[in-house]
Amino acid sequence: MSANLKSYIQKSMGFKKEVKPLLHETYSSSLIDWMKEHAFRLNVEPLTFYLAEEFGFCYGVDRAVELAYESRKMFADKKIFLTSEIIHNPRVNAVLREKGIEFLSLNNEKLVEDNFKQIQSDDVVIIPAFGTTTQELDKLRDIGCTLVDTTCGSVMNVWKRVSRYGKDGFTAVVHGKYDHEETRATCSRVTQYTHGQYLVVRDLEQARYVCRFILGEINKETLLSYFSKEALSPNFDPDRDLKKIGCANQTTMLSSDSIEIADRIQEAMVKRYGRENIDQHFRHFDTICSATQERQDAVRKLIEQKMDLYLVIGGFNSSNTGHLVEMASEYGPAFHIQDPSDVISKDEIRHKLPYVKDIHITRDWLPKGRVKIGVTAGASSPNRVIEEVMKRVIEAAELRMPPFVSTALSEGKS
Ligand code: SF4
Protein backbone atom coordinates (compact mmCIF):
# COMPACT_ATOMS: atom_id res chain seq x y z
CA MET A 1 0.00 0.00 0.00
CA SER A 2 2.69 2.46 1.00
CA ALA A 3 4.76 2.13 -2.21
CA ASN A 4 5.22 5.58 -3.81
CA LEU A 5 3.36 7.35 -1.04
CA LYS A 6 5.31 9.92 0.89
CA SER A 7 3.93 8.45 4.04
CA TYR A 8 1.09 6.07 4.94
CA ILE A 9 -0.44 6.63 8.37
CA GLN A 10 -3.06 4.48 10.07
CA LYS A 11 -2.26 5.15 13.70
CA SER A 12 -2.12 8.00 16.15
CA MET A 13 0.49 10.59 15.21
CA GLY A 14 1.30 11.28 18.85
CA PHE A 15 -1.14 14.19 19.32
CA LYS A 16 -3.85 12.33 21.23
CA LYS A 17 -3.27 14.38 24.36
CA GLU A 18 -3.63 17.63 22.45
CA VAL A 19 -6.73 16.70 20.47
CA LYS A 20 -8.69 14.95 23.24
CA PRO A 21 -9.70 18.21 24.97
CA LEU A 22 -10.70 19.71 21.61
CA LEU A 23 -12.88 16.72 20.79
CA HIS A 24 -14.38 16.77 24.27
CA GLU A 25 -15.14 20.46 24.03
CA THR A 26 -16.85 20.09 20.65
CA TYR A 27 -18.69 16.79 20.85
CA SER A 28 -19.21 15.62 24.44
CA SER A 29 -22.29 16.20 26.58
CA SER A 30 -22.62 16.37 30.34
CA LEU A 31 -26.37 15.74 30.02
CA ILE A 32 -25.77 12.48 28.18
CA ASP A 33 -23.17 11.49 30.78
CA TRP A 34 -25.72 12.28 33.49
CA MET A 35 -28.39 10.15 31.79
CA LYS A 36 -26.00 7.22 31.50
CA GLU A 37 -25.59 7.38 35.26
CA HIS A 38 -29.36 7.59 35.77
CA ALA A 39 -30.83 4.61 33.93
CA PHE A 40 -30.65 6.41 30.55
CA ARG A 41 -33.69 8.48 31.47
CA LEU A 42 -34.56 12.12 31.85
CA ASN A 43 -37.89 13.02 33.33
CA VAL A 44 -39.20 16.50 32.53
CA GLU A 45 -42.87 16.20 33.45
CA PRO A 46 -44.91 15.35 31.47
CA LEU A 47 -42.15 14.19 29.08
CA THR A 48 -39.78 11.32 29.75
CA PHE A 49 -36.80 10.82 27.47
CA TYR A 50 -35.59 7.23 27.20
CA LEU A 51 -32.12 7.11 25.74
CA ALA A 52 -31.12 3.92 23.94
CA GLU A 53 -28.38 2.05 25.78
CA GLU A 54 -26.13 2.12 22.70
CA PHE A 55 -26.16 5.15 20.47
CA GLY A 56 -24.02 7.75 18.78
CA PHE A 57 -20.31 7.71 17.91
CA CYS A 58 -18.97 4.20 17.28
CA TYR A 59 -15.35 3.09 17.66
CA GLY A 60 -14.71 3.59 13.92
CA VAL A 61 -16.02 7.14 13.92
CA ASP A 62 -14.17 8.02 17.14
CA ARG A 63 -10.94 6.90 15.55
CA ALA A 64 -11.56 8.61 12.19
CA VAL A 65 -12.41 11.97 13.74
CA GLU A 66 -9.48 11.76 16.13
CA LEU A 67 -7.06 10.99 13.29
CA ALA A 68 -8.44 13.91 11.26
CA TYR A 69 -7.82 16.25 14.20
CA GLU A 70 -4.36 14.80 14.71
CA SER A 71 -3.60 15.31 11.01
CA ARG A 72 -4.38 19.00 11.35
CA LYS A 73 -1.92 19.23 14.25
CA MET A 74 0.77 17.14 12.62
CA PHE A 75 0.56 18.84 9.21
CA ALA A 76 -0.28 22.35 10.37
CA ASP A 77 1.30 24.03 7.34
CA LYS A 78 0.14 21.56 4.68
CA LYS A 79 -2.91 21.31 2.49
CA ILE A 80 -5.19 18.55 3.74
CA PHE A 81 -7.94 16.90 1.71
CA LEU A 82 -10.60 14.36 2.59
CA THR A 83 -11.67 12.04 -0.25
CA SER A 84 -15.29 12.45 0.93
CA GLU A 85 -17.20 13.32 4.09
CA ILE A 86 -15.27 11.83 7.02
CA ILE A 87 -18.55 10.47 8.37
CA HIS A 88 -22.16 11.24 7.51
CA ASN A 89 -22.71 14.01 9.99
CA PRO A 90 -23.05 17.64 8.87
CA ARG A 91 -21.81 19.09 12.18
CA VAL A 92 -18.60 17.08 12.22
CA ASN A 93 -17.89 17.81 8.55
CA ALA A 94 -18.51 21.52 9.05
CA VAL A 95 -16.00 21.63 11.92
CA LEU A 96 -13.35 19.95 9.77
CA ARG A 97 -14.03 22.40 6.96
CA GLU A 98 -13.53 25.25 9.44
CA LYS A 99 -10.15 23.74 10.19
CA GLY A 100 -9.23 24.19 6.55
CA ILE A 101 -9.65 20.57 5.49
CA GLU A 102 -10.98 20.42 1.93
CA PHE A 103 -13.44 17.83 0.66
CA LEU A 104 -12.78 16.25 -2.73
CA SER A 105 -16.22 14.76 -3.15
CA LEU A 106 -19.56 15.55 -1.57
CA ASN A 107 -22.97 13.93 -1.36
CA ASN A 108 -21.80 10.59 -2.67
CA GLU A 109 -20.83 12.01 -6.04
CA LYS A 110 -18.04 10.10 -7.68
CA LEU A 111 -14.69 11.78 -7.39
CA VAL A 112 -14.12 13.88 -10.45
CA GLU A 113 -10.82 13.85 -12.24
CA ASP A 114 -10.34 17.59 -11.69
CA ASN A 115 -10.48 17.20 -7.93
CA PHE A 116 -7.53 14.87 -8.01
CA LYS A 117 -5.55 17.19 -10.25
CA GLN A 118 -5.26 19.73 -7.46
CA ILE A 119 -3.50 17.27 -5.12
CA GLN A 120 0.27 17.66 -5.00
CA SER A 121 2.82 15.23 -3.61
CA ASP A 122 3.36 17.59 -0.69
CA ASP A 123 -0.30 17.40 0.35
CA VAL A 124 -2.03 15.17 2.86
CA VAL A 125 -5.12 13.15 1.96
CA ILE A 126 -7.38 11.59 4.58
CA ILE A 127 -9.37 8.47 3.73
CA PRO A 128 -12.63 8.47 5.71
CA ALA A 129 -14.01 5.73 7.95
CA PHE A 130 -15.90 4.15 5.00
CA GLY A 131 -12.63 3.72 3.07
CA THR A 132 -12.20 4.48 -0.61
CA THR A 133 -11.97 2.57 -3.87
CA THR A 134 -8.84 0.84 -5.11
CA GLN A 135 -8.91 3.11 -8.18
CA GLU A 136 -8.79 6.20 -6.01
CA LEU A 137 -6.01 4.70 -3.91
CA ASP A 138 -4.01 4.01 -7.07
CA LYS A 139 -4.36 7.64 -8.13
CA LEU A 140 -3.19 8.83 -4.73
CA ARG A 141 -0.26 6.45 -4.84
CA ASP A 142 0.69 7.86 -8.26
CA ILE A 143 0.61 11.38 -6.85
CA GLY A 144 2.87 10.24 -4.03
CA CYS A 145 1.20 12.31 -1.30
CA THR A 146 0.89 11.55 2.40
CA LEU A 147 -2.08 9.34 3.16
CA VAL A 148 -3.88 9.18 6.49
CA ASP A 149 -6.08 6.12 6.29
CA THR A 150 -8.93 6.11 8.84
CA THR A 151 -10.80 3.19 7.24
CA CYS A 152 -12.61 1.32 9.99
CA GLY A 153 -11.40 -2.20 10.79
CA SER A 154 -14.95 -3.52 10.38
CA VAL A 155 -15.04 -2.18 6.82
CA MET A 156 -11.70 -3.82 6.10
CA ASN A 157 -13.20 -7.07 7.34
CA VAL A 158 -15.83 -6.85 4.58
CA TRP A 159 -13.09 -6.20 2.03
CA LYS A 160 -11.22 -9.27 3.24
CA ARG A 161 -14.32 -11.41 2.71
CA VAL A 162 -15.24 -10.12 -0.72
CA SER A 163 -11.62 -10.21 -1.90
CA ARG A 164 -11.63 -13.88 -1.03
CA TYR A 165 -14.83 -14.35 -3.03
CA GLY A 166 -13.28 -12.57 -6.01
CA LYS A 167 -10.14 -14.66 -5.77
CA ASP A 168 -12.07 -17.93 -5.52
CA GLY A 169 -14.41 -17.13 -8.42
CA PHE A 170 -17.50 -16.42 -6.30
CA THR A 171 -19.60 -13.40 -7.25
CA ALA A 172 -19.98 -11.07 -4.28
CA VAL A 173 -23.65 -10.32 -3.66
CA VAL A 174 -23.47 -7.32 -1.37
CA HIS A 175 -26.49 -6.20 0.62
CA GLY A 176 -25.97 -2.45 0.55
CA LYS A 177 -26.44 0.78 -1.35
CA TYR A 178 -24.41 0.91 -4.54
CA ASP A 179 -23.86 4.67 -4.23
CA HIS A 180 -22.62 4.53 -0.63
CA GLU A 181 -18.89 5.21 -0.26
CA GLU A 182 -18.33 2.01 1.70
CA THR A 183 -20.05 -0.21 -0.84
CA ARG A 184 -18.27 1.44 -3.77
CA ALA A 185 -15.01 0.74 -1.97
CA THR A 186 -16.08 -2.84 -1.24
CA CYS A 187 -17.02 -3.55 -4.85
CA SER A 188 -13.66 -2.26 -6.03
CA ARG A 189 -11.98 -4.94 -3.89
CA VAL A 190 -13.82 -7.60 -5.90
CA THR A 191 -12.97 -6.31 -9.36
CA GLN A 192 -9.27 -6.15 -8.59
CA TYR A 193 -9.37 -9.86 -9.51
CA THR A 194 -9.62 -10.59 -13.23
CA HIS A 195 -12.83 -12.58 -12.91
CA GLY A 196 -14.18 -10.77 -9.86
CA GLN A 197 -17.86 -9.84 -10.16
CA TYR A 198 -20.37 -8.20 -7.86
CA LEU A 199 -24.05 -7.46 -7.57
CA VAL A 200 -25.37 -4.99 -4.99
CA VAL A 201 -28.86 -5.74 -3.67
CA ARG A 202 -30.53 -3.01 -1.73
CA ASP A 203 -33.37 -4.89 -0.08
CA LEU A 204 -35.40 -8.09 0.14
CA GLU A 205 -37.35 -7.25 -2.99
CA GLN A 206 -34.18 -7.04 -5.07
CA ALA A 207 -32.91 -10.26 -3.49
CA ARG A 208 -36.16 -11.92 -4.56
CA TYR A 209 -35.31 -11.11 -8.19
CA VAL A 210 -31.92 -12.75 -7.79
CA CYS A 211 -33.60 -15.84 -6.33
CA ARG A 212 -36.12 -15.96 -9.17
CA PHE A 213 -33.29 -15.88 -11.67
CA ILE A 214 -31.41 -18.65 -9.84
CA LEU A 215 -34.58 -20.76 -9.91
CA GLY A 216 -35.07 -20.15 -13.65
CA GLU A 217 -38.28 -18.13 -13.20
CA ILE A 218 -36.94 -15.07 -15.04
CA ASN A 219 -34.31 -14.72 -17.76
CA LYS A 220 -31.13 -12.69 -17.63
CA GLU A 221 -32.56 -9.80 -19.65
CA THR A 222 -35.31 -9.32 -17.06
CA LEU A 223 -32.80 -9.46 -14.23
CA LEU A 224 -30.42 -7.01 -15.90
CA SER A 225 -33.19 -4.56 -16.70
CA TYR A 226 -34.34 -4.63 -13.08
CA PHE A 227 -31.00 -3.60 -11.57
CA SER A 228 -29.34 -0.25 -12.03
CA LYS A 229 -26.09 -0.46 -14.00
CA GLU A 230 -24.12 0.84 -11.02
CA ALA A 231 -25.29 -2.11 -8.93
CA LEU A 232 -23.49 -4.56 -11.21
CA SER A 233 -19.85 -5.09 -12.06
CA PRO A 234 -18.98 -4.18 -15.66
CA ASN A 235 -19.77 -7.08 -18.04
CA PHE A 236 -21.86 -8.82 -15.41
CA ASP A 237 -23.45 -11.87 -16.99
CA PRO A 238 -26.09 -13.49 -14.77
CA ASP A 239 -25.84 -16.83 -16.61
CA ARG A 240 -22.13 -16.99 -15.90
CA ASP A 241 -21.89 -14.99 -12.68
CA LEU A 242 -24.70 -16.30 -10.52
CA LYS A 243 -23.53 -19.91 -10.36
CA LYS A 244 -21.25 -19.25 -7.41
CA ILE A 245 -22.33 -16.63 -4.91
CA GLY A 246 -20.73 -15.21 -1.79
CA CYS A 247 -22.97 -12.97 0.33
CA ALA A 248 -21.70 -10.02 2.35
CA ASN A 249 -23.17 -6.72 3.44
CA GLN A 250 -22.44 -3.07 3.94
CA THR A 251 -21.58 -2.81 7.64
CA THR A 252 -24.49 -0.49 8.42
CA MET A 253 -27.46 -2.34 6.94
CA LEU A 254 -30.39 -3.68 8.92
CA SER A 255 -28.94 -6.94 10.20
CA SER A 256 -32.23 -8.86 10.09
CA ASP A 257 -32.58 -7.98 6.38
CA SER A 258 -28.99 -9.00 5.62
CA ILE A 259 -29.52 -12.37 7.28
CA GLU A 260 -32.80 -12.94 5.48
CA ILE A 261 -31.32 -12.00 2.11
CA ALA A 262 -28.46 -14.46 2.57
CA ASP A 263 -30.90 -17.16 3.76
CA ARG A 264 -33.18 -16.70 0.75
CA ILE A 265 -30.31 -16.81 -1.71
CA GLN A 266 -28.89 -19.88 0.00
CA GLU A 267 -32.30 -21.56 -0.18
CA ALA A 268 -32.54 -20.82 -3.91
CA MET A 269 -29.01 -22.16 -4.48
CA VAL A 270 -29.85 -25.34 -2.55
CA LYS A 271 -32.93 -25.85 -4.72
CA ARG A 272 -30.90 -25.26 -7.86
CA TYR A 273 -27.72 -27.21 -7.08
CA GLY A 274 -28.69 -29.59 -4.27
CA ARG A 275 -27.72 -29.50 -0.62
CA GLU A 276 -24.79 -31.85 -1.21
CA ASN A 277 -23.19 -29.35 -3.61
CA ILE A 278 -23.99 -26.13 -1.79
CA ASP A 279 -20.43 -25.47 -0.58
CA GLN A 280 -19.28 -25.21 -4.18
CA HIS A 281 -21.98 -22.64 -4.95
CA PHE A 282 -22.66 -20.56 -1.88
CA ARG A 283 -20.77 -18.79 0.90
CA HIS A 284 -21.85 -16.27 3.46
CA PHE A 285 -20.26 -14.06 6.09
CA ASP A 286 -22.31 -11.68 8.16
CA THR A 287 -20.34 -8.44 7.95
CA ILE A 288 -22.62 -6.14 9.94
CA CYS A 289 -20.30 -4.38 12.37
CA SER A 290 -20.78 -4.85 16.10
CA ALA A 291 -21.50 -1.13 16.62
CA THR A 292 -24.37 -1.23 14.12
CA GLN A 293 -25.71 -4.41 15.68
CA GLU A 294 -25.58 -2.96 19.20
CA ARG A 295 -27.42 0.21 18.14
CA GLN A 296 -30.13 -1.83 16.44
CA ASP A 297 -30.47 -4.12 19.49
CA ALA A 298 -30.79 -1.05 21.72
CA VAL A 299 -33.63 0.31 19.57
CA ARG A 300 -35.39 -3.04 19.94
CA LYS A 301 -35.16 -2.60 23.72
CA LEU A 302 -36.71 0.86 23.45
CA ILE A 303 -39.49 -0.58 21.31
CA GLU A 304 -40.19 -3.21 23.99
CA GLN A 305 -40.76 -0.35 26.44
CA LYS A 306 -43.46 1.03 24.12
CA MET A 307 -42.50 4.61 23.39
CA ASP A 308 -45.08 7.15 22.23
CA LEU A 309 -42.62 8.48 19.67
CA TYR A 310 -38.99 8.16 18.64
CA LEU A 311 -36.40 10.81 17.85
CA VAL A 312 -33.56 9.35 15.81
CA ILE A 313 -30.67 11.75 15.35
CA GLY A 314 -28.16 11.57 12.52
CA GLY A 315 -27.21 12.88 9.09
CA PHE A 316 -29.95 12.49 6.50
CA ASN A 317 -27.42 10.59 4.35
CA SER A 318 -26.40 8.30 7.22
CA SER A 319 -27.22 4.71 6.33
CA ASN A 320 -27.10 3.30 9.85
CA THR A 321 -29.30 6.12 11.19
CA GLY A 322 -31.83 5.45 8.44
CA HIS A 323 -32.13 1.82 9.50
CA LEU A 324 -32.71 2.78 13.14
CA VAL A 325 -35.58 5.00 11.95
CA GLU A 326 -37.03 2.22 9.81
CA MET A 327 -37.01 -0.15 12.80
CA ALA A 328 -38.68 2.34 15.15
CA SER A 329 -41.21 3.52 12.57
CA GLU A 330 -42.82 0.07 12.56
CA TYR A 331 -43.87 0.68 16.18
CA GLY A 332 -44.72 4.35 16.41
CA PRO A 333 -44.04 7.79 14.97
CA ALA A 334 -40.27 7.97 14.34
CA PHE A 335 -38.65 11.26 13.36
CA HIS A 336 -35.21 11.26 11.74
CA ILE A 337 -33.72 14.65 12.48
CA GLN A 338 -30.24 16.06 11.93
CA ASP A 339 -30.01 18.68 14.63
CA PRO A 340 -32.02 20.77 17.10
CA SER A 341 -33.20 23.24 14.46
CA ASP A 342 -35.35 20.45 13.02
CA VAL A 343 -37.53 20.72 16.12
CA ILE A 344 -39.27 23.81 14.79
CA SER A 345 -41.80 24.06 17.61
CA LYS A 346 -43.97 21.85 19.74
CA ASP A 347 -46.34 21.77 16.77
CA GLU A 348 -43.90 21.18 13.91
CA ILE A 349 -40.91 18.96 13.30
CA ARG A 350 -38.81 18.68 10.13
CA HIS A 351 -37.56 15.16 9.45
CA LYS A 352 -36.56 12.69 6.79
CA LEU A 353 -39.16 10.05 6.08
CA PRO A 354 -38.14 6.41 6.56
CA TYR A 355 -37.20 4.40 3.44
CA VAL A 356 -37.20 7.46 1.13
CA LYS A 357 -35.13 10.61 0.72
CA ASP A 358 -37.98 13.09 1.24
CA ILE A 359 -37.77 15.72 3.95
CA HIS A 360 -41.12 16.39 5.49
CA ILE A 361 -42.66 18.67 8.12
CA THR A 362 -45.07 16.91 10.45
CA ARG A 363 -47.57 18.91 12.44
CA ASP A 364 -48.80 18.01 15.93
CA TRP A 365 -45.89 15.62 16.40
CA LEU A 366 -45.73 16.00 20.19
CA PRO A 367 -48.79 14.50 21.89
CA LYS A 368 -50.37 16.20 24.87
CA GLY A 369 -50.07 14.77 28.38
CA ARG A 370 -47.49 12.21 29.46
CA VAL A 371 -45.22 11.26 26.60
CA LYS A 372 -42.49 8.61 26.45
CA ILE A 373 -39.88 9.76 23.92
CA GLY A 374 -37.37 7.19 22.75
CA VAL A 375 -34.09 8.82 21.74
CA THR A 376 -31.27 7.32 19.77
CA ALA A 377 -28.61 8.44 17.32
CA GLY A 378 -26.65 6.94 14.46
CA ALA A 379 -22.99 5.99 14.74
CA SER A 380 -21.89 9.36 13.38
CA SER A 381 -23.82 11.60 15.78
CA PRO A 382 -21.96 13.42 18.55
CA ASN A 383 -23.44 13.37 22.06
CA ARG A 384 -23.50 17.15 21.98
CA VAL A 385 -26.11 17.15 19.21
CA ILE A 386 -28.26 14.63 21.10
CA GLU A 387 -28.17 16.87 24.15
CA GLU A 388 -29.08 19.93 22.10
CA VAL A 389 -32.03 18.09 20.55
CA MET A 390 -33.45 17.11 23.95
CA LYS A 391 -32.95 20.62 25.29
CA ARG A 392 -34.68 22.01 22.22
CA VAL A 393 -37.67 19.69 22.73
CA ILE A 394 -37.91 20.80 26.37
CA GLU A 395 -37.75 24.44 25.31
CA ALA A 396 -40.28 23.96 22.49
CA ALA A 397 -42.67 22.26 24.91
CA GLU A 398 -42.28 25.29 27.21
CA LEU A 399 -40.87 23.14 30.00
CA ARG A 400 -37.78 23.51 32.15
CA MET A 401 -34.96 21.16 32.97
CA PRO A 402 -35.52 19.82 36.52
CA PRO A 403 -33.46 21.90 38.98
CA PHE A 404 -31.53 18.89 40.33
CA VAL A 405 -30.38 18.04 36.78
CA SER A 406 -29.44 21.65 36.02
CA THR A 407 -27.54 21.86 39.30
CA ALA A 408 -25.69 18.60 38.65
CA LEU A 409 -24.78 19.77 35.13
CA SER A 410 -23.61 23.19 36.21
CA GLU A 411 -21.50 21.62 38.96
CA GLY A 412 -20.07 19.22 36.39
CA LYS A 413 -21.35 16.24 38.38
CA SER A 414 -23.11 13.23 37.00
S1 SF4 B 1 -20.56 2.00 11.81
FE1 SF4 B 1 -19.31 0.16 12.10
S2 SF4 B 1 -18.13 -0.02 10.22
FE2 SF4 B 1 -18.91 2.06 10.26
S3 SF4 B 1 -17.29 3.24 11.23
FE3 SF4 B 1 -18.67 2.61 12.86
S4 SF4 B 1 -17.80 0.71 13.67
FE4 SF4 B 1 -16.86 1.07 11.67
TrEMBL record:
<feature type="binding site">
    <location>
        <position position="318"/>
    </location>
    <ligand>
        <name>(2E)-4-hydroxy-3-methylbut-2-enyl diphosphate</name>
    </ligand>
</feature>
<feature type="binding site">
    <location>
        <position position="320"/>
    </location>
    <ligand>
        <name>isopentenyl diphosphate</name>
    </ligand>
</feature>
<keyword id="KW-0408">Iron</keyword>
<dbReference type="GO" id="GO:0016114">
    <property type="term" value="P:terpenoid biosynthetic process"/>
</dbReference>
<feature type="binding site">
    <location>
        <position position="88"/>
    </location>
    <ligand>
        <name>dimethylallyl diphosphate</name>
    </ligand>
</feature>
<dbReference type="GO" id="GO:0051539">
    <property type="term" value="F:4 iron, 4 sulfur cluster binding"/>
</dbReference>
<keyword id="KW-0004">4Fe-4S</keyword>
<feature type="binding site">
    <location>
        <position position="152"/>
    </location>
    <ligand>
        <name>[4Fe-4S] cluster</name>
    </ligand>
</feature>
<feature type="binding site">
    <location>
        <position position="320"/>
    </location>
    <ligand>
        <name>(2E)-4-hydroxy-3-methylbut-2-enyl diphosphate</name>
    </ligand>
</feature>
<keyword id="KW-0560">Oxidoreductase</keyword>
<dbReference type="GO" id="GO:0019288">
    <property type="term" value="P:isopentenyl diphosphate biosynthetic process, methylerythritol 4-phosphate pathway"/>
</dbReference>
<feature type="binding site">
    <location>
        <position position="251"/>
    </location>
    <ligand>
        <name>(2E)-4-hydroxy-3-methylbut-2-enyl diphosphate</name>
    </ligand>
</feature>
<feature type="binding site">
    <location>
        <position position="318"/>
    </location>
    <ligand>
        <name>dimethylallyl diphosphate</name>
    </ligand>
</feature>
<feature type="binding site">
    <location>
        <position position="88"/>
    </location>
    <ligand>
        <name>isopentenyl diphosphate</name>
    </ligand>
</feature>
<feature type="binding site">
    <location>
        <position position="319"/>
    </location>
    <ligand>
        <name>dimethylallyl diphosphate</name>
    </ligand>
</feature>
<feature type="binding site">
    <location>
        <position position="58"/>
    </location>
    <ligand>
        <name>[4Fe-4S] cluster</name>
    </ligand>
</feature>
<keyword id="KW-0411">Iron-sulfur</keyword>
<feature type="binding site">
    <location>
        <position position="320"/>
    </location>
    <ligand>
        <name>dimethylallyl diphosphate</name>
    </ligand>
</feature>
<dbReference type="GO" id="GO:0051745">
    <property type="term" value="F:4-hydroxy-3-methylbut-2-enyl diphosphate reductase activity"/>
</dbReference>
<keyword id="KW-0414">Isoprene biosynthesis</keyword>
<feature type="binding site">
    <location>
        <position position="88"/>
    </location>
    <ligand>
        <name>(2E)-4-hydroxy-3-methylbut-2-enyl diphosphate</name>
    </ligand>
</feature>
<dbReference type="GO" id="GO:0050992">
    <property type="term" value="P:dimethylallyl diphosphate biosynthetic process"/>
</dbReference>
<comment type="similarity">
    <text>Belongs to the IspH family.</text>
</comment>
<feature type="binding site">
    <location>
        <position position="180"/>
    </location>
    <ligand>
        <name>isopentenyl diphosphate</name>
    </ligand>
</feature>
<feature type="binding site">
    <location>
        <position position="318"/>
    </location>
    <ligand>
        <name>isopentenyl diphosphate</name>
    </ligand>
</feature>
<feature type="binding site">
    <location>
        <position position="319"/>
    </location>
    <ligand>
        <name>isopentenyl diphosphate</name>
    </ligand>
</feature>
<feature type="active site" description="Proton donor">
    <location>
        <position position="182"/>
    </location>
</feature>
<keyword id="KW-0479">Metal-binding</keyword>
<feature type="binding site">
    <location>
        <position position="289"/>
    </location>
    <ligand>
        <name>[4Fe-4S] cluster</name>
    </ligand>
</feature>
<protein>
    <recommendedName>
        <fullName>4-hydroxy-3-methylbut-2-enyl diphosphate reductase</fullName>
        <ecNumber>1.17.7.4</ecNumber>
    </recommendedName>
</protein>
<dbReference type="GO" id="GO:0046872">
    <property type="term" value="F:metal ion binding"/>
</dbReference>
<dbReference type="Pfam" id="PF02401">
    <property type="entry name" value="LYTB"/>
</dbReference>
<dbReference type="InterPro" id="IPR003451">
    <property type="entry name" value="LytB/IspH"/>
</dbReference>
<feature type="binding site">
    <location>
        <position position="180"/>
    </location>
    <ligand>
        <name>dimethylallyl diphosphate</name>
    </ligand>
</feature>
<feature type="binding site">
    <location>
        <position position="180"/>
    </location>
    <ligand>
        <name>(2E)-4-hydroxy-3-methylbut-2-enyl diphosphate</name>
    </ligand>
</feature>
<comment type="pathway">
    <text>Isoprenoid biosynthesis; isopentenyl diphosphate biosynthesis via DXP pathway; isopentenyl diphosphate from 1-deoxy-D-xylulose 5-phosphate: step 6/6.</text>
</comment>
<feature type="binding site">
    <location>
        <position position="380"/>
    </location>
    <ligand>
        <name>isopentenyl diphosphate</name>
    </ligand>
</feature>
<feature type="binding site">
    <location>
        <position position="319"/>
    </location>
    <ligand>
        <name>(2E)-4-hydroxy-3-methylbut-2-enyl diphosphate</name>
    </ligand>
</feature>
<comment type="function">
    <text>Catalyzes the conversion of 1-hydroxy-2-methyl-2-(E)-butenyl 4-diphosphate (HMBPP) into a mixture of isopentenyl diphosphate (IPP) and dimethylallyl diphosphate (DMAPP). Acts in the terminal step of the DOXP/MEP pathway for isoprenoid precursor biosynthesis.</text>
</comment>
<feature type="binding site">
    <location>
        <position position="380"/>
    </location>
    <ligand>
        <name>(2E)-4-hydroxy-3-methylbut-2-enyl diphosphate</name>
    </ligand>
</feature>
<feature type="binding site">
    <location>
        <position position="380"/>
    </location>
    <ligand>
        <name>dimethylallyl diphosphate</name>
    </ligand>
</feature>
<comment type="pathway">
    <text>Isoprenoid biosynthesis; dimethylallyl diphosphate biosynthesis; dimethylallyl diphosphate from (2E)-4-hydroxy-3-methylbutenyl diphosphate: step 1/1.</text>
</comment>
